[in-house]
Amino acid sequence: MKHHRSYTLFFIPFAVTAILMLGVMPGLAQTHYPVPGEIPEPMPMVDEGNDDIINFLLIGSDTENPRNAGRTDVLLIMSVNRTAGTVAMLSLPRDLYVYIPGHRSYRINAAYGYGEQAEAGSGPQLLIDTIRHNLGLRIDYYARVDFNDFRRIVDDLGGIEVVVDCALQDWQLIAPDLDPQFEDSWELVTLDVGVHWMDGDQALWYARSRRTSSDFDRGRRHQVLMRALWNRIQGLSLTAQLTDIWPQVLESVQTDISLDLMLELVPLALSMDSSRIASYTFRPNVEVRSWLSPEGSNVLVPVRASIAELERQFMQPPTEHQLVRERPVVEIVNATGVTNLARVAADRLAWDGFTPRINAQPQNYRNYTMIYDYTGQTKGSSLEALQMALRVSDEGVVSEPDPDREVDFRVVLGGRYLACTHGVLPPQ
Description:
Blueprint: H1 2-24, H2 26-29, E1 53-61, E2 72-81, E3 86-91, E4 97-99, E5 105-107, H3 111-118, H4 123-135, E6 141-146, H5 147-156, E7 160-164, E8 168-173, E9 186-191, E10 194-198, H6 200-208, H7 215-235, H8 242-252, E11 254-255, H9 259-270, E12 277-281, E13 288-292, E14 298-302, H10 304-315, H11 322-326, E15 329-334, H12 341-351, E16 355-359, E17 370-373, H13 382-390, E18 397-399, E19 409-413
Parallel strand pairs: 1-6, 3-12, 15-16, 15-19, 17-18
Antiparallel strand pairs: 1-2, 2-3, 4-5, 6-11, 7-10, 8-9, 13-14, 17-19
């Protein structure tokens, strides 16, 4: 009995570890790798509660030929909660390995083309059915553009301002009319951290680049571009001209969205700010796991338990999150010696639910970033979120509680401030 008890004690740590893995990381335990010919059970539909929600599917196709359906290079679900007055965006990776109803398991970016091959005009519905079956998300309307459409939209707006927090380096055609088959048609382009004004070609390059990043980061950048487009539309007051420009919109966008619905959404759109917009992307080894498919392709297998949790958050209005409710005010001082880094930091903090204010007064150079905390709060507060966003350790925080404060935090950006927190490789 004594030896038996010793062996029991020996295995207890392993048993506890296994239980914790099952409880804390359910996605790992419930990853299902498809079997050829298998039709997976439909994903349970996401509970949207009693709110008035409209879900739009935004599609970008990797083609310049209007007669070619192409693959869906961009898949972005935009959920508009008319009850709460909020918007949430969820990017789907194009390599997501899913069951395409009536066909087989394959990359999600093939679903649209399968539908078009079966019957012209049925691509959107098959893609919508694929999302419903595999992700449990209801799609009400769709809008699709191809490469040329996207370029035209950006150029018709006179360009867009994009805040870049991760430098990118990739090949780009020197001119869009050059033959891509010739090596001399290409040049290696580096996009530095900062604020950039982009035309249609540059915006398309930014949307598609993967050389120093990933498909996950591309999804994040698609959402950056959506915000930039919306800011430009607001800046030009185009929503007030919607009825007049709608025929022009339909020349570039294939959609089943009606003008009447768009007009209904205008008041909500005019009241929208960054605190009411939430962004979500799938994460490697959380919502998806890498896998070599039976066809020999590198794909991403859905982890259903983790996806269900992400979708629950996706359907929760951003205003219900504590940080967004508080909207802490952060003064940002640029002591890096690099122009526009305060804008980059402010943009990131606005995405995270803070209210940034830039102090444009000239500052002496500082090496390290410092956070001055005037709230007097303890752990578990917005201070932790601020530290994470700016990569500032506890040693870089100075507590100076002030009940009469005009701002909650003061951030002094130092020369070692790294804006990129998204796993993008630095240009060589």
